[in-house]
Fold:
Amino acid sequence: MKALDNLMRSPRSLLIFEAVVRTGSCTAAARAFNLTQPSVSRNIAHLESALGVALFLRRPTGLEPTPEGMLLYRAIAEGLERIGEAVDAICQPHLRRQAVVLSLSTAFVTHWFVPRMRAFNQAFPDVDLRFELTSGALRGPPGNVDLAMRRTPTCETDDYICPFMPEVVLPVCSQAYLERHGTLGAEGPITSHVLLELTETEIGWRLLLGARSEPLVSSGRWFEFSDYAVVLQTAIGGQGIALGWISAVSRLIAGGTLVPASRLRLETGAHFSLISPRTRSVRPIVHRIRDWMVDEMQREYRALLPLIAEAEPAAAARRARRPTRAAVVSG
Structure:
């Protein structure tokens, strides 16, 4: 067997590889290590050359780990977890609070979790939360965290994965915008409206509106953002209509901060699920937090059901249910 130090120039290449798999992007890994994207790509290429196998499949939609890549990723993630536990044991032996790491979207934490922090602290007074935030679409393996929210093509349940919320999308805007511009009708012109969109996501305005969306693209009344929290904040500020995933905007709608901008409703058949890595057993406290999040979401969703039921299913929903490449690697 070749010695590890002969296989690669530096252990840092393993850390960069782990970051690429965890974040699902060379660009995100480059930001984490203060490198350029080409530098990260070259690092992965050198690692593949040293190992003699491909670690990723290059797809049009991005990088997908090969079986060999996932084997290496799990080993690195497990090693990093053990190192983290050792550091905690050395540096914080006096602390009794449990730390739980959650991988969630920036928008979800801002608009769903933060308003519930007091209730969470009352339910879990001895837990410290640490957030790993994702600005865009919820893809990729959960990584080295306790619990991650990811978009999954099916509804599955076991010790490692729990459905959180079906993917339901409503066009939403502020009340002030609605009073100025009116609703976004299922038929007729839409050029009086401004559409806000999240980049690099499976569900967008083109899917919902089809060819009717094209005039806004060319007229400068279409804005795209890489961070869904910014999309929602722009809508809250009365600057346009956003696609509102109920899993993230339920509290905003319940409180009247955002209102439906259209009678259209999109149900894709996909789900948002809470996932724990399969590389280790799930701690009881993680199961308890997962159940608390699901209960909170279901309570709010039931309250919104009459409003959601008033909306008409979009024709695009049938196309959105077509089988697609799995959006999550459960690790």
Notes: Residues 316-331 have pLDDT under 50 and may be disordered. The two ends are 27 Å apart (CA to CA). The chain has 14 helices and twelve strands.
